[in-house]
Amino acid sequence: MLAGSAAGAWLRAQETEAIAFDLSLLDDPAVHNELFFVRQHFPQPSGLSAAVWKIEVAGAVKTPSSVPLEALSRLPERRLPATVECAENPVGGGLVSHAEWTGHPLASVLEAARVSDRATHVVLHGADGFAHPIPLSKATHSDTLLVTGMNGEKLPPGHGFPIRAIIPGWYGMQSIKWLNKIEVLEGEPPARAYRRRTQSLLAGTRDDGAVGAGLVKAVFTRPLDGAILTQRGRFHVRGVAWAGEHSIARVELTADGATWHTAQLDDKPQPYVWVRWSWMWTPAAPGIVELAVRATDDAGNQQPRQRTRTRMDPYESNAWQSIRITVS
After folding, report:
1. Which 3 state secondary structure label does DSSP give 162?
2. Rounded to two decimals, what is the model's pTM?
3. pLDDT, tens only, 207-242
4. Contact at 8 Å (CB) between 198 and 205?
């Protein structure tokens, strides 16, 4: 098991695939399965078959078991809309998408396994070799699902067929694909990658804890950075915003860096789910204009103007997005 910067270096060395979603294609809240972003740490496993797939439940449980998918299908079914974002998604990046997921509560499997009273974490393992821990409190939340369906269709192989986890409101590395083992732990889990690293003159570089719940974030979908607007009048500026376990309360834009305007929210805000926003903008004069956007969630968390300079890791980038537009 690796820790700290060594774990991060090892993880980056194993990266196999990262395909972003083109945000300018967003029209409906849900992203079509074939357009949904892809982030894989290891090559997709071969021999994927729902007929023979089993999930091992082990560790600090009183009833270890090997659960076939057919047994999971008898559990209560849930449909849950949830936005998934990669922890390494840059400002304005497309390593984020939204879908409606169909599955069964992880809590039901843990309840049947009779988890130890001293259990603290659950490590989810994928058949590709990637694994990540989550706190037991999140694992047993009624919205944490083991899913087999995506946007009303069978889960595609590239998104975890035959079964994956969805940890709603948390960054995507916890939503393990090709799930084949659930391991319950007592005490603190072994250190893994996806940890905050900060640096100061006095303390040097230090570990500031695991990356977990997603941060509030708003991005532009249209116009694109560098666009040239050739018609005078009002322009329809559009985008999308999300806030992890919270819901979006407000999206604001500025064209001068000082005056902020409230955008219209085009979808009903709710936890886990991104909302589309829009703003009718009338440029003051021809020239190059820098538009910036920021969002605030229902807990009062607001996007920062810039990322904290002491952060030394690539995770949780949620500063304002700015785009430069030429108005002719």
Report:
1. coil
2. 0.89
3. 778 888 999 999 999 999 999 988 677 899 999 999
4. yes
